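Lab notebook: predicted structure, single chain.

Context: the supervisor wants predicted structures on file for every construct in the current expression panel, including those that have not yet been purified. This is the next one on the list. No modifications to the sequence; it matches the entry in the shared construct table.
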Amino acid sequence: MLSGHAAARLTRGGVRAYDPAWRVGIGSTLRLAGSNTSDRTRETPMTLIVGPNLSLDQTVAVPRLRVGTIHRVPEVLRLAGGKGGNVARALAILGGEPLLCGFAGGPVGRLVEANLVRDGVPHRLVATAGETRICFSVADDASGEQTEFYEAGSAVTVNEVAALLAAVEACLADQRWVVITGSLPPGAPDDLYATLIERAHRAGARTLLDAKGRALAAGLEAGPDVLKINRAELADHVGRELATPVMVAMAAAEVVGLPSDPPPVAGFQGASPRDGRPARAPGAVITLGAAGAVVAGVDGWWRVMAPPGAARSPVGSGDSAAAGVVLGLERGLGLREAARLGVAAGTANARHLGGARFTRGEAEAILAEVPAAPLARTSARGDG
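Prediction complete. Output recorded below exactly as produced.
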């Protein structure tokens, strides 16, 4: 976990000033057991996490959830959440150096900020007139299921969106990677993520996109470097069921503009044989929940398997996977090995209540048990 932080007050319509003292933990390392870089260490550059629709995540656990009755809970777990908050916290746990940028407003926004400070997550927040949303989850220990209630969030204004873009631009000079993640708050334009991707690329940063719906469709047209979504989000985007890993890989290749088969020759540079246009993303990591992930990249398709183990809560596992993927890519791993790290982080996360509350040691231990096997398009009905 990162140590050290600086605090400043939010001002309505303004942004938190960036303090270089927040750049802590430079040179922290993660031992990548079981990969070809397990005996090396790398410096850790800063990663900008843009998650506009932050939230205060509140989670309780009950022995058994019974509808229509009173449940008394001894403790409420509160975390700075939304996908951006989870990705930033997970990246810090893994030894990366996140800088989180998003909206925050009202008393709930101040609680979100206080939780970021508590957890040592550097941040640059844009103040809004509307209140930050609250997301509430109830974990049923008897069934292992979790019931979730997510607010959509308060509407943001044109000026607040412009302030967010300005805050991101002010941070881009220090970034090698920008993670753009989560739902858009009401009032934000559908192409906000596309705009962020274009500006990040102009500044020389690479991008990872994790979105859904119209924000995903618009973002893909801007050409993110890596797409990280889950199977359900991909199926919704392509409009068909994706029952097997091969079907997932085919659909992922389709949406990022890669060939519809794994590349047959070395040296493929990312041009789609369908129309000759450059690929919209060099690769995709599609998470499958407890089953791991599928990777579709310029050098092949891969099935990355998660090891078995008791899971407590899935919340934040996809976000933890995104953190692992971007950290691996920052440290020079290929997409397959970065996806292995992502699956290890997501698996570690699922063993805890609340998003991104695992330890680096847990992720390291799990990584040694995460295999990756090549996928071939034997048939649309095969499982690879």
